[in-house]
Amino acid sequence: MRFGLFFLPAEGPGRHRSAAEAYRELIDSAVAAEELGLDSVWFAEHHFSRYGGYVPSIPVLGAAVAQRTERIRLGSAATILPLRDAVETAESFAMLDVLSGGRLDVGVGRGFLPREFAGRGVTMAERAGRFAEGLAVLRAAWADEPVTFHGEHYHLDQVDVLPKPLQRPGPPLWIAASTARDSFELAGREGMGLMVNPYNRTAEELACGLRWYREARGAAGLDPLGGRVLANQHLFVAPTEEEAAEIPRRALMEYLGAVDTAFGRELSPHDYSEMYPGKVLFGTPETVAGKIREWARVGVTDLCLMQHFGSLPPETAARSLKLFAREVIPCLR
Q: Model's pTM, two decimal places?
């Protein structure tokens, strides 16, 4: 099991940071994660709202983190390919891979927020086509030969995309999947990693998606039980179950409110029991370790942990992470 931090600065009710404050908090947390022995840090891309809109460009933030760290891997979770130019995306991520010394993982997704597509003048109906072509161009751009590609959205003739990433044939690729069967099957068929969000899916939906992924790997001649599966989870570790349940309660509800706002929905009262204890990693070190063992049994290989959410004070999140690193990671490794 590998452990990473996930950064999505959601400015919901109760928390209003400046961009400078958010970037400082993210970069300092990435440095702390490396010092505590975590394996990776992951950044989400979003646009036009307080739900992650402070990170419209993962390569820019990743370059800042790369200059402050030496070992920890940097990942996108995920870049929204239908909203980006694939050639520019290939160039930017190749630069980051070189600047970080080959520490990059690239997760890509179709996107899901209508507001983001409207802001870029892209229709939601174009998502699948733009994603498929963008992924093909991205992979071709990292190869040694100039790119020739003709589709509905890209027309390239012998374009020599530079620089090339340090990792060859390119940084590890991951596919963010929610409910679309073809996303799970694409990741499996192409031997890519799979990224899932268990906290907003039922156990049955997650199990079904993992089955599609493994079946696609097997049909492609790959080990069905191989591949890497990354799950995103909110994290809060405390000395007692009562503290672990109550201290982050308000912050988690604020985060869910930010999600509502990003979708353009009216703020709805969320039931804490829908999330706690089943869909979050909240608890004592022993409880959290037990939950992680359950994820490992169903095939999760990487955990992407969100320690900053809602109005949870940074110092409180830092104490939780230190307790996790000191008492949970060693017993699982």
A: 0.95
